[in-house]
Design goal:
Number of helices: 18
Strand content: 5-15%
Radius of gyration: 25 Å
Number of strands: 12
Strand order of the largest sheet: 5-7-8-9-6-10
Helix content: 40-55%
């Protein structure tokens, strides 16, 4: 901890010409120890808002100087990963990846393994093959601490080999996974991030994975697959596939593979049925059979279904005029979905000069043109049975039972059951118990009602 304080002090001094004050030191110590801002504030006899504000500026400055996204949630793991250590004979502190060198004694030195292969490294770290070309850069991360802990428990403690992170587009699946990966880079020898937004055949994906692992490709697909699982067995690998729903068929029930991508189904099964030490994370707006398991002991499979955020901090930085009450109401209205909130924030700034209370006074659920485009895509992915079910649900202000839906829809019992299951696996319909009722997402309901009004008016 002393070396971290000295390191931070010298970085701050080089940038600002001032050393860390007592409050800044207390914040660094508290963040390192995992304390909340309220606990740090109580210890320093300062307000929580004051501590949070100073901490934000301090973390931002450290992020800029080190070229890393440093936040409260990853502060300790980031500095551990940077491999900072003392060198009594060295009077220069050099931070690889930046342009800063400054006098310092005793110095804290961080060297990049890529820049200097002869440097001293932590013996626990292993040679790595990382491919992050398609991974997003995370600017802000909000209130997903429990989800991060869940992923850590599944992957690091329980060796779950296939994990799905599921939920509507914009809910934060990619952000959550990228943050977890950033926090755990030193736990793996191979990390590869791929997107299936524009899906490719499985064999081409396997070629990419083997090339990243610096393996000479075998001739046949089966031999390449064996090569890949040899890597999974002898190296600790983490493979991330984003936008997996794009390999599923549009216009059918959820999770039905397109014929040209049917091989992915067998690949996902092999991940769970073959003994190895690696992990595959799938991110999708739809759930397929391979993402769910009724017997946890038999197959190491887990699914994490993301709900909307509730913390008012999500609106910070959007330039809105709000108090706590109006901000929370806006978040609730748009289901805590960061993408929806960003869209509606732009609308509020353009039409209401950023005044959230004035926007809420309209007492209507506004569907922006960006949301409408997104919902159009979702609706077009639905099977004909699902489309009729959501249209019928949108006509009512309260949830309906399966029996009530059957009265309004000329479906067989099997079609209705399969349709309701599929809509839940797309996160458009939720189930309420005692009695069992089915509830349509309010935003999707408003979208359907708007479409219906427009068709009548035209």
């Amino acid at each position: 901890m002393t070396e971290i304080l000295q390191f931070a002090d010298q970085l701050i001094f080089a940038k600002k010409g001032k050393h860390l004050d007592d409050l800044q030191e207390s914040i660094i110590k508290g963040v390192w120890d995992g304390r909340s801002y309220q606990e740090i504030a109580d210890e320093c006899n300062r307000s929580e808002s004051r501590v949070r504000n100073i901490a934000a500026k301090l973390l931002q400055l450290l992020s800029e100087e080190l070229g890393e996204d440093i936040e409260k949630t990853n502060f300790r793991s980031t500095f551990n990963r940077l491999n900072i250590f003392s060198s009594q004979n060295q009077r220069i502190c050099h931070v690889s990846g930046s342009n800063h060198s400054f006098n310092y004694s005793p110095s804290i030195l961080y060297n990049s393994k890529q820049d200097n292969p002869k440097i001293s490294t932590n013996n626990n770290l292993k040679p790595t093959n990382f491919d992050f070309k398609l991974a997003p850069k995370i600017i802000k991360f909000y209130n997903r601490e429990s989800e991060l802990k869940t992923l850590s428990s599944w992957i690091l403690d329980n060796n779950i080999r296939l994990i799905s992170v599921l939920g509507l587009s914009g809910i934060g699946k990619t952000t959550l996974v990228k943050r977890w990966v950033d926090l755990n880079l030193d736990k793996f020898e191979v990390i590869i991030w791929k997107s299936l937004k524009y899906p490719k055949f499985l064999e081409l994906l396997i070629d990419d994975l083997l090339n990243t692992c610096e393996r000479e490709l075998k001739a046949t697909r089966d031999d390449k697959l064996k090569q890949l699982f040899d890597v999974f067995t002898y190296k600790k690998c983490l493979i991330i596939l984003d936008d997996v729903h794009n390999i599923f068929t549009q216009g059918e029930f959820s999770g039905q593979y397109q014929s040209v991508y049917q091989d992915y189904q067998n690949f996902f099964k092999l991940i769970t049925e073959t003994e190895h030490q690696s992990h595959l994370i799938l991110m999708s707006q739809e759930q397929c059979t391979e993402m769910e398991c009724l017997d946890d002991e038999l197959y190491p499979i887990k699914s994490l279904k993301l709900l909307g955020l509730e913390d008012g901090e999500i609106l910070s930085g959007m330039g809105l005029k709000q108090d706590q009450d109006s901000g929370l109401k806006l978040i609730e209205k748009y289901q805590g979905n960061p993408m929806y909130l960003k869209d509606v924030a732009l609308l509020i700034k353009d039409v209401f000069d950023g005044n959230v209370a004035e926007f809420l006074a309209e007492d209507s659920l506004v569907i922006t043109k960006e949301m409408r485009s997104h919902f159009n895509q979702l609706f077009n992915r639905l099977s004909p049975v699902e489309q009729k079910i959501v249209v019928e649900l949108s006509k009512f202000d309260q949830p309906l039972s399966r029996g009530e839906l059957r009265q309004h829809l000329d479906f067989s019992s099997i079609d209705l059951i399969n349709g309701l299951q599929s809509l839940q696996q797309r996160y458009l319909v939720s189930k309420i118990k005692d009695p069992i009722l089915f509830n349509l997402s309010l935003l999707f309901q408003e979208y359907l009602r708007t479409i219906e009004k427009n068709s009548i008016n035209s």
